[in-house]
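Data availability excerpt. The first of two example chains:
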Amino acid sequence: MKKMDNSVSIYFHRDFDGMVSAALIADYVQKKNPDAQLKLFPVGHTRGNNWMETHLKGNTIFLLDYPFHPQATYWFDHHQTGLGGYEGPLDPERHFFNPDKTSCALLIWEVLYNVFDYRNLNFQELVKWADKIDSARFSLEELIECKEKPLQIHLSLTVDSDNAYLIELTRLFLHYKDLLFSPKLPLPLIVVWRLRKALNLRQQALAQFQQNAIYDPQSKIVFFTMPKSFLTCRWAPYYFYPDCFYALGVIQIKGDRYMIILNENPWRRTHRFNIGQLCASYGGGGHPTVGGITVVTASEAQRIAEEILQRLKTNLLSDKD
C-alpha cells in the first residue's frame, strides 16, 4: 500500500466478519505505520440510499465489508451488491471486490498476503471463524448448543450491539487475536452479560416464533413477523420447518426501523433465486442465498414482504407445473 497518513479511519460492517476484517487491517496499519492514529467506525445498512452522499472522516480511509464509497482510499468487499449504483472504474491497487469470496475477512487475508506481502498467522483462527459464520457453514446443532466462543460472540451481537460494543470487540480481536478463543482465556465480561441476555431472549423468541410463523407446504416458504429478539434464533425457521426452502420475515429493529430478511435454508439449498439481487431491487442487498432490506415504516415493510412472497410463490409453484 502507498504511504499512509497518520490519521487512519476504518469503516466496517457491524457484524462478526466486519469486525475481524477491521482487526486485520488495523494490525497491518500498525505494523506499517506505528504512529498511525486509528479510528473505528461501524456502519450498517440502515444508511440505505444516502450512503454515497455520506461524508467519511479521515485522511486515509479503509472501507470494509460494505458497499463502495468514492471517498474510500481502500475498499474491500465480497457482497455481490457491493458496487451499489456505482458504475465508474475501480483501481486494482486500492479497490478489492470479489463476490466469489465467502467472507470479507478471507478476502483481506488473501489480498494482504498476495498483493502486499503481509500475513500475521496469529489471526488464522479468527479468519477461519469469520468465514465460517459469514457463509453459514455450521450445523444446526452447533448453533443451538452455542458452545464455541466465536458463536457465543456472534450471538452476543444480537443484544445491545451499539457502536461502543462493536468497537471494543474489534479492539479485543486486534489485541488478543486467536488467543481470544483459547480455553485458558475467559470470555470478556462485556460479552458474557450480553450472551446471557441473548440466551434468555432466545427462549421467549422461539415460543413467539411458533405462534407467529406461517408455513406454506406447497411453496415451502416460512413467513413471519417478529421483534428484534428473533435475531437470537435466526435458525428457528429451519428447526421447526426443516423442509422449507426459504424464510421471509419482517423484523422490527427499532421503533422507526424495520428489516425484511430473506434467507435460503442453508441446509436445503435450491439456488432458484439470487436473493441479493432481489433485495437490491428494493434498496437492500446481500448474497445469492441471503439478503435484507431496511425501511422506516411498518406498512412499507409489509408491502415489500408481501410482494416478495408473491414473487417467490409464483416462481416456485410454476416450477412444479
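And the second chain:
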Amino acid sequence: MESDNEQQLKSNGMIGDSTQQPNEEHDLDNIPVSNGDSQKVTKEKNKKHKALKLAIIIVSAIIGVLFIGYIIMLISITGSLSRFGEPFWFENGRLFFGPSSCGGDDMRLHCSVTADPYSWCSCEKRTYVNGHEFFPVDKPMIYLYPESTLDLNVSLGSPELLTSSYPKYVDGWNIVAYPNGDLIDKNSGKKLYALYWEGQREVNNLDMTTGFIVKGEESAEFLEEKLEVLGLNYREAEEFIVYWLPKLELHEYNYIYFATEEEIEAEMPLEFSVEPDTLIRVRMIFEGLDEYKEVKEQTLTPASERNGFTVVEWGGTDLTTRDD
C-alpha cells in the first residue's frame, strides 16, 4: 500500500504512477530536435536537391548532343539544309534523293551508289553515235609492273571517248614505271600507283547471250572467285570489289558479263611505247534485276601467267538504266 506521503507526491505530479505505460508514439513526436540534428537534415536535403539538379543537367546535355548529332546526320545525308525539299524514295532498303524517273526518250536516270546507305539521283542526257547508245565505262585503272625501271608512254586508241582522266591525259601519259608498281607522272612529277580514266562505250556490239545471274548479297564471293580466274592479284581484286560491290548489292539479282579481250580491245585499244609481255584486261558489264532469270553461263578464259613486263587494267559498265 502506498503511504500518505507517496499519494501526496503523486497528486502534486512529483512522481509518476509505476503502473501507467508511456505513450511511445506521443513521446517520440515530442522529443525535441537539437540545432545540430536540424542542420544535418537540411544538409541531406540540399545534397539530394543538388544531385537531382546535376542529373537533370546531364540528361539535358545528352539529349542536346543526340539532337545535334541527328541534325548533323541529316545535313550530311542531304548535303545541305537547302536540299531537304528534294523528293526521296526507297528501294531495296536504300534511300534515294532526287527524281525516280526521267521523262523523254533522250534522258535516263543515273543514281550514284556508294557504301553509304543513300544515293543521289539525277537525269542525264543519253549519248548516241550512229543510232547506238553509249554508256559510261567506270573507273578503268591501269597498273604497270616492269622488270626494271622503265620510261614509257601509255595512250588510248579512242581518246575522243574519254570523259575523265588522272593524271590529265595529254597525248597519252608519259611516266616512269618501277618494278613494285609505283609510277611517276613525268608531266607533274607526282607519284602514283595506277593510271585512271573514264569514258563511254557502245553496248550493242557485245555478245551478251551468256553471262551469270548473281544474287546481290552473294556478289563479293562471286567476284573473289571470278577475278582470280581473270588474273587480278589480291590488291587489284580488292580495289575492284570495294568499288563495284555497293552497286551490285543494291539489287536483288544482277546479270553479269565479262567482256572478252577482243571486245575490250575493240572498245578502247591500249597502246604502249614499250610493248608489255603480259596484258590482262578485265571489263565487267552488269545490269541490276528485280527477279531471277535464266541465262546461259559464260565460260571464262583464264588469264595468262604473268611474265616479264606486265600491264593490268580493270573497269566496268552499269547497264541498269538500259532500255530493253
